[in-house]
Amino acid sequence: MAPQCHGHTFKRKRIAVLPNQACPIQSSALRAVARWWISAYTPDRLPSRREIDLDAIRHALPYVWLVEHVPDDESFRYRLSGEHVNVVFGFSLRGKRLCDIIEPHMLDTVRQRYLHVLNTPGVVYAVGRVYMRIGGYREGERLILPLSDDGVKATHLFGVTDYGGGRRENWEQPPEYMDERFLEIDDVRAWGPALSLDDMTL
């Protein structure tokens, strides 16, 4: 049964992504970030925030956000957030802790999402009707990827959220319905061939 929190319904899946399976991402911003991350990843080393290629993801910059895990108190702190994200929340997320911006009844759900990316390390991809603090409800897509200061242990979450994209389907679901997939890194690497085709159309 999907976890429910005061009207919020999330459908979580562990999806086995087959080799050469088409990438499910619709948003060009998410596709750009995923393409960069796959190119920067090697089997024995996670990408670092210092390696982020701003030119490669320039069109995605308004949609990205960076979260640092603070081991001392096991908190998460936002280090940057793009303007598209800030408009959705109504303020800049930079410098704020997760508990400062997420409603208390949703905090554990979001923490589990972040911990999957941090500890596995893994990836979270979600698509569905994303709740916004302003502007009502809209379709959205979210991708969260791990970054590491030493290449081994994940220390940061590199997220990209497009609140204006995503597929419109399953309209009978509640307004906050989201299909959320907790993925392994190899699942995301399998998207590489499909994402590489984007370069041919740029």
TrEMBL record:
Pfam families, alphabetized: PAS_5
Top-rank taxon: Bacteria
InterPro entries in the cross-refs: DUF1457 (IPR009922)
UniProt name for this protein: PAS domain-containing protein
